[in-house]
Amino acid sequence: MLKKAGIIVAAAVLIGLIFLCQAGGTLLKKGFAEEKETSSRVDGRDTYLVMIDPGHGGLDAGKVGVNGEEEKNINLKISLKIKKLLKQQEVEVIMTRTEDERLAESQVEDLKARTALMNKEKPDLVVSIHQNSYHDETVSGAQVFYYTDSAQSERAAGLIQAAFEEIDPENTKSAKGNSTYYILKKTEVPVVITECGFLSNYKEAEKLADEEYQQKIAEAVVKGIMQYLEGDEGKQN
Ligand SMILES: [Zn+2]
Question: How remote is the CA of residue 19 from the centroid of ligand 1, in Å?
Answer without folding.
Answer: 49
